[in-house]
Amino acid sequence: MTSPLDPLLRPRSVAVVGAARKRGSISAEVFHNLLAREFQGPVHPVSARASVVQSVRAYPTVDSIPDPVDLAVLVVPAREVLETAEACGRRGVRALVVITAGFAETGPEGARLQDALVECARRYGMRVVGPNCLGVLNANPEIRLDATFAPHFPPFGGVAVCSQSGALGLAILDLAREVGMGVSSFVSIGNRADVSAVDLLEHWEHDPDTRVILLYLENLGDPRRFLEVARRVSREKPIALVKSGRTEAGRRAASSHTGALAGLDVAVDAVLGQCGVIRTDTIHELFDVGLLLASQPVPASPRVAILTNAGGPGIMATDACESRGLAIPPLPEATRAALREFLPEAAAVGNPVDMIASATAEDYERSLRILLADDTVASVLVLFVTPIVTAAVDVARAVTEAAAGSHKPIAACFMGSQGVPEALAHLRRHGVVTYAFPEAAAAALARAACHGAYRSRVPTPPPALVVDRDAVTGVLAAERDRGETGWLPPDAVRRVLDAYGIRRPRQAVAADGEAAAAAAPSVGFPLVFKLVSSTIVHKSDVGGVKVGLRDAAEVRAAYDEVLARLAALGRAAELEGALLQEQITGGVETFVGATRDEQFGHLVGFGLGGLQVELLRDVVFRAAPVSPDDAADMIGGIRGRALLEGFRSGPVASRPALVELLLRVSRLVEDHPEIAELDLNPVLATADGAIAVDARIRVGC
Ligand code: ADP
Ligand code: MG
Question: Full-prediction pTM beyond 0.90?
Fold first, then answer.
């Protein structure tokens, strides 16, 4: 299978343009690496000054290279890059890696130069990595391409790595070598002028050498394309990502709940959650999960068995697993009986299985075989603390013997120093991942299990929703014609909700106190009185919401009271009328919102309503269009989810009703991109429905 990125990652020949003679410079190191790692094709140095570079005949220009060149690595000064790229294009070069810095990262002039580079490359059909990057590498023994200036070449294996930062790329390659993580290929994308992380995902999707993809990114580029491609690729090959830039979250103007809550980072989390990408906080965690997925199958469920020879680490591991959403279920009786047959009386055979300090290598092997054969166990965490009686290497051998041919992931954690390094080396050689501490193992297993759950899910087909799109188009057009922008008046909001089947209480709008009293019986008692104002955002902050009104007289009095209150604040003129609503009883106060993001399009959020939403920020976002599974994840993803299930005899919320509401809101904003913000807060979620009692919609560009 050929990929458009083959000339870049599987070139037949390479030229290094700007190769200096003196070792220690970037260009000389790139050239040296290509030779020293034994690239399996010819490597040509191009140098204006030297006729020989590191014992290889050099050419004065790209045009003078007699053989065809697939990949040219440019290490010339920035001002010469364009002209060199032209020469490469003319010479029939198919891909460029531009290591040179001094482009978009430096300002507008550099950005123009970068655009010109891309334009030139497009003209000749060349792909470009960089500029301002560390280079590219393919560790496959049949290729052995190291077009980087990194000091170390990683071992070959199933992990593909893409780094947006060159410096971190160096650190990643270093760490890969240190922990023995086998790399298929590595690309430092630098300024990402042409080749992006998404292009690489598409390449690695079909690359037989790659099993797992690790990304270090500072931004997702085009998030919609990332979502689309990552969603597809991660079903076959796990993708893990560490993204920096979490602190940008506060950058957005906060004119509504949803807008304030949906910071940039939230948007990134939303999109990653939707496409099965594993997000980690640190590079170390990225490696921890990458190592596991590169050598072990994806866990079929979160059920873990822990096998140990010491109680303390077993308890630590149990806590670490459970706090990360893994289950340590009690083992079935048959499994316990099988273990009891040979383990000492004092051993615990529940879960964790604590074989106590006297455990031999043979005990490890037999126990591990039994656990792996148990259908209720999806993965095994093997802990070993060096006691005096048993050699770590023997236990390591026992583990790999038992693990051979197993289709369940095994993570090991050998603690102590005596004989442990040898044991770890043995485990690694046999593809069993090892961790320094149980917590790291638990975190990696939890992330892998979460990914497994994503993968094994059969997508729920979206229900057919009946909506009246034209009605909303009409409402929004009428508002625009009135010259109004911003928040829609209550009647317009009502028509929008009704057209999209979003449930709301029975209601009436009145211009003043007298009209409100007259309209009240049509709503029914008890009712809720709310002030109407285009300037007052939080009605209850100014005492503008009165619940439990029992007759028309109370409605009249409520109006006067609110008016008096506003007058005392000098804001009487802001009172534009009254909204009377049927009073909904029971139900959990939840929050549903949508906000439009420049890069991500609309984001839809779900959380607990009222105070919780602002105070605890317990909201989960997904990018529209929201699928039924996304909606279920949003509802199940909030920390306070127990409150939806009748916590302490509280009301129970109907999940299907909430799912449907989220789908309707998603459809509404997808159909009408001019909706900038929408807040339904609260939505009262009862056992038989989800009713939006307070709705605000802002239109605008
Ligand atoms: P605001 O958010 O502007 O202060 P809301 O319309 O959200 O005003 O009302 C404030 C609170 O009053 C809600 O959080 C809810 O607890 C209660 N409430 C409002 N409308 C109703 C209603 N129709 N039925 C029951 N409770 C309501
Ligand atoms: Mg409200």
Answer: no
Question: Does the pLDDT of residue 255 top 60, yes or no?
Answer: no
- Range of 374's domain? 297-456
The least confident of 73-77, 135-139, 650-654 is 650-654
Report pLDDT digits (tens) over 476-493: 999 888 776 688 988 999
Residue nearest to atom 17 of ligand 1 (CA): 547
Q: Looking at residue 108, which CATH number applies to its domain?
A: 3.40.50.720
Secondary element (H or E) of residue 535: none
Are 412 and 510 in the same domain? no
- How many Å lie between the centroid of ligand 2 and the Cα of residue 681? 4
**Ligand 1 touching residue 583 (CB < 6 A):** yes
| Nearest ligand, CA 544 | 1
Helices 361-373 and 392-403 cross at an angle (nearest 10°) of 20
Looking at the predicted structure, is the pLDDT value of residue 252 above 80?
no
- Are 519 and 618 in the same domain? no
Q: Which of 138-152, 236-250, 347-361, 416-430 has the lowest mean pLDDT?
A: 236-250
Residue 251 pLDDT greater than 80, yes or no: no
Return the pLDDT at 30.
96
Question: To test the ligand 1 pocket, which listed residue (503, 525, 540, 611) has its Cβ within 8 A of the most ligand atoms?
Answer: 540
256 within some domain: no
Mean of the per-residue pLDDT values of the chain: 92
**CA of 587, closest atom in ligand 1:** 25
Q: Indicate if 495 and 407 belong to the same structural domain.
A: no
Residue type, 125: G
> Which of 564, 582, 600 lies at the terminal end of a domain, its last residue?
582
Query: Which parts of 504-544 are beta strand (E)?
Result: 507-510, 527-532
CB 693 near ligand 1, within 6 Å: yes
| Residue 84 burial (C-beta neighbours within 10 Å; 0-12, 13-18, 19+) | buried
What residue's CA is closest to ligand 1, atom 13? Answer: 682
Ligand nearest to the CA of 590: 1
* Helix/strand number for the chain, H first, E second: 23, 30
The whole-angstrom separation of Cα 300 and Cα 304 is 10
Q: Whose CA is nearest to atom 7 of ligand 1?
A: 694
What confidence score (pLDDT) does residue 614 get? Answer: 67
Residue 260 has pLDDT above 60, yes or no: no
In a domain, 225, yes or no: no
Higher pLDDT, 204 or 265: 204
Q: Which ligand is nearest to the CA of 545?
A: 1
The residue among 630, 643, 649, 632 whose CA lies nearest residue 682 is 643
- The gap from C-alpha 499 to its chain's centroid, in whole angstroms, comes to 34
Higher pLDDT, 590 or 480: 590
Q: Are residues 55 and 81 in the same domain?
A: yes
Residue 263 Cβ contacting ligand 1 at under 6 Å:
no
Question: Ligand 1 in contact with 530 (CB < 6 A)?
Answer: yes
Cβ of 605 less than 6 Å from ligand 1: no
* Confidence tier at 224 by pLDDT (50, 70, 90): confident
The CATH number assigned to the domain holding 526 equals 3.30.1490.20
90 lines ligand 1 (CB under 6 A): no
Q: Do residues 201 and 212 make contact, with C-beta atoms less than 8 angstroms apart? A: no
Residue 695 inside a domain? The answer is: yes
3-state secondary structure of 59: strand
